[in-house]
């Protein structure tokens, strides 16, 4: 099985999403993108977000427009429009919209500076 792909989900609706959270950008990984038949991808987030007084760490994304396919995100420059769902007791509920794009690798928490090994005189 291949390595999961890291994505950035920018939440644009609801417009005040960023007011409730640190940022409108959610970062996470998904292996669902490797299945060409998948119409929706579940993205496991690196953190969590707050929505309707509940915390979530997983989202489900689907194309925002009929006839589109999520795999187009790999051909896009700025991102691909998506509907964003959060999990409820009754299943997934699409309540948000935004853009999906590939994200760079996360910065290493323990990055070593090149000059740390330098012996001082």
SSE inventory with pairings:
Layout lengths: L4 E9 L3 H4 L4 E6 L10 E11 L2 E10 L16 E9 L2 E12 L19
Antiparallel strand pairs: 1-2, 1-6, 2-3, 3-4, 4-5, 5-6
User: How does the overall form come out from the CA principal axes?
Assistant: globular
Number of continuous helical runs: 1
Beta-strand percentage?
Answer: over 45%
Number of strands: 6
Structural class: mainly beta
Average pLDDT metric: 87
**What's the number of domains?**
1
Low-confidence stretches: none
With strands numbered from the N-terminus, the spatial order across the biggest sheet is: 1-2-3-4-5-6
The level of helicity is: under 10%
The radius of gyration over CA amounts to: 17 Å
Biased composition (Acidic residues): 108-121
Region (Disordered): 99-121
Written overview of the protein:
Residues 108-121 have a biased composition (Acidic residues). Residues 99-121 are annotated as: Disordered. With 121 residues, this protein is mainly beta. The chain has one domain (5-104). The chain is 3% helix and 47% strand. It has one helix and six strands, in the order E-H-E-E-E-E-E. The protein has one helix at residues 17-20; strands spanning 5-13, 25-30, 41-51, 54-63, 80-88, 91-102. It has a six-stranded antiparallel β-barrel with strand order 1-2-3-4-5-6. Strand 3 and strand 4 form a beta hairpin. The relative contact order is 0.22. The model has no long low-confidence stretch (mean pLDDT 87).
């Amino acid at each position: 099985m291949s390595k999961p792909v890291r994505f950035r989900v920018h939440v644009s609706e609801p417009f005040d999403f960023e007011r409730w959270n640190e940022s409108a950008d959610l970062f996470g990984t998904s292996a669902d993108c490797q299945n060409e038949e998948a119409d929706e991808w579940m993205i496991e987030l690196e953190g969590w977000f707050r929505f309707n007084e509940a915390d979530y760490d997983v989202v489900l994304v689907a194309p925002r427009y009929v006839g589109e396919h999520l795999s187009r995100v790999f051909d896009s420059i700025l991102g691909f429009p998506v509907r964003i769902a959060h999990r409820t007791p009754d299943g997934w509920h699409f309540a948000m919209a935004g853009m999906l794009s590939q994200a760079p690798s996360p910065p290493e928490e323990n990055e070593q500076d090149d000059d740390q090994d330098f012996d001082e005189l």
